[in-house]
Amino acid sequence: KFELSRRDMFINGALYAAAIPIVFDLIQDLGVDFGEDAVPASSSLELLEHLSVVPGYGPEQGVGTKYQVAAFAGGCFWCMEAPFDKLGDGVIATLSGYTGGATENPTYREVSAGTTGHAETVQVVYDPTLVSYEQLLDAYWHSIDPTTLDRQFVDSGTQYRTAIYYYNEEQKRLAETSRDDLAAANTFRAPIVTEITEASTFYPAEKYHQDYYKKKAMKYSFYRSLSGRDEYLQQIWGPSYVLAQK
Question: How far apart are CA 6 and CA 4, in angstroms?
Answer without folding.
Answer: 6
